[in-house]
Specification:
Layout lengths: L16 H4 L13 H12 L10 E6 L2 H9 L3 H7 L4 E8 L12 H18 L3 E5 L4 H8 L6 E10 L9 H4 L25 H7 L1
Antiparallel strand pairs: 1-2, 2-4, 3-4
Helix pairs in contact: 2-5
This protein binds flavin mononucleotide.
Length: 206
C-alpha cells in the first residue's frame, strides 16, 4: 500500500532517518517474520542504559490468540487501528538495578532509548512502529503476568508494514500523515534559563 508523502523538512542538516520515522495508524496485517523481529529487538538491545542495566522488557504478540489478548488491553481509541497490526508488544521498565537492588532513576529514559532504536531500525527495513500510552494499565499486569512491584508498564507498540488507509475510521484517516515539530530554539537553552541568548541568537552570532 502507498505510504502518504512525507512533507517533513528539517531546519538544519540531518540524517533522513530521523524524519523518515513516523507513527502511522494504517497497518497491514501481513506478518513480520521472526528474523526481522529479531533484528528490531537487536536494535533495542544495543541501546545505552545507566550502568548498562538494560532495564527493558518487551512482551510480544504475533499469534492470533495473543494478538486478541494484547489488543483487548489497548484503549478503545487505539483498538480501532492498532488491532490490525501483525505484531503488538508491551514495553516494561525494570524499577531497580540488578546489582544493588536500589531504585534506577533512569529506567524509563533507558527504555525510551531502546524504543527509539527499535523504531528507527523498523523504518530502515520499510516497517513502522507506533508507540501507545493508551492501554488498560489496571488489567495489564495481571493479564500478562508481570509484577507491578518490579516493572513499570511504559507503552504498547504496534509493528508492521503500511496498510490501507481506507480501512481507518474517517477521523483517524484524516490525521494519517507525518506531523511537524517545534523549532530547536523552543527547547535548547545555552547557558542558563532566562538568558537572552537563545539558540537563534547563538546561531546567528556564529
Ligand atoms: C510514549 C508514547 C505514547 C504514545 N501514545 C499514543 C497513543 O496512545 N495513541 C496514538 O495513536 N499515538 C500515540 N503515540 C504517538 C505520538 O502521538 C507520536 O509519536 C507523536 O505525535 C509524534 O509523531 P510521529 O511519531 O509520527 O513522529 C505515542 C508516542 C509515544 C512515544
Amino acid at each position: 500500500m502507498p505510504v502518504p508523502p512525507n512533507e517533513r523538512r528539517p531546519d538544519h542538516p540531518l540524517d533522513s532517518q530521523f524524519i523518515d520515522r513516523w507513527s502511522p495508524r494504517a497497518f497491514s496485517p501481513a506478518p513480520v517474520p521472526r528474523d526481522v523481529l529479531n533484528t528490531l529487538f537487536e536494535a533495542a538491545r544495543w541501546a545505552p542504559s545507566c550502568f548498562n542495566e538494560q532495564p527493558w522488557l518487551f512482551l510480544v504478540a504475533t499469534e492470533k490468540d495473543d494478538l486478541v489478548r494484547f489488543g483487548d488491553l489497548l484503549s478503545t481509541g487505539n483498538q480501532v487501528w492498532a488491532t490490525r497490526a501483525p505484531v503488538l508488544a508491551f514495553l516494561f521498565a525494570r524499577r531497580v538495578f540488578s546489582h544493588t537492588g536500589r531504585p534506577n532513576r533512569t529506567f524509563m529514559f533507558d527504555c525510551g532509548a531502546a524504543w527509539m532504536s527499535l523504531a528507527l531500525q523498523a523504518c530502515k527495513l520499510g516497517l513502522f512502529a507506533h508507540a501507545m500510552a493508551g492501554f488498560k494499565r489496571e488489567e495489564l499486569y495481571g493479564e500478562l503476568g508481570v509484577s507491578p512491584d518490579d516493572y513499570e508498564a511504559i507503552c504498547a507498540i504496534a509493528i508492521g508494514s503500511y496498510g490501507d488507509v481506507a480501512l481507518l475510521p474517517p477521523d483517524v484517516a484524516a490525521r494519517e500523515k507525518p506531523n511537524d515539530r517545534r523549532p530547536i530554539s523552543s527547547f535548547v537553552v545555552y547557558g542558563r534559563m532566562g538568558q537572552d541568548a537563545g539558540t537563534e541568537a547563538a546561531d546567528s552570532a556564529s
